[in-house]
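Okay, is this right?
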Amino acid sequence: AGLTIPEALRDSLTARLDRVAAVKQVAQVGAVIGREFSYEMIAALGLMPEEALGRALAQLTESQLAFVRGTNTNAVYTFKHVLVQETAYDSLLKSQRQPLHARIARIIAERWPETADTQPELLAHHFTEAGLAMEAVPYWRRAGDLGMRSLALSEAIKHLKKGMTLLETLPATPNRDLTELGFRTALAPAVLAQRGWGHAEVGKTLEPAWKLAEALGQRESYL
């Protein structure tokens, strides 16, 4: 995400998307789901009748903007290039994207509840992009913990930092501070394991944690 697409290329891709309104719509929604999206997921969003959706998806692949593997309800679509996904995604206003991200997150949580344990970062991403920080934060914590358990330290650090960034947008309350304390005490071992005691980030993570623990009367429990 966040690629800078050359203007001429963006115009060319936009023109290809604009040729058929239904194709553009499924490309836009598919782009919000991700670089890859399943028929089951996009159908669950109820964009259009099943027959129309099938035609639009067929036209999307015929245009070579996306590839497909599998058939019918088992089909999975992949954008030919991340630039195609970015162009389709950027053609939606933020006010259009946010409710889509929220619906996608809730459909995933309802239909594929195991995702909360196997890919919590996916739910965290969609809730974050939906502007729903309260819903996103616990999933970033789960993603960080999962990364630590699998020794994927870079991923764990990235996920925990994303959760802490979202926490900064929430009103200061004892609950919020306690959640931040939990994030910091999870982040510190990851930073320590990856970068060693001497790295400045260890102190930057632990010093605020110490202050939070003292303020919350949790020093003995957490530090």
Observations:
- The mean pLDDT is 90.
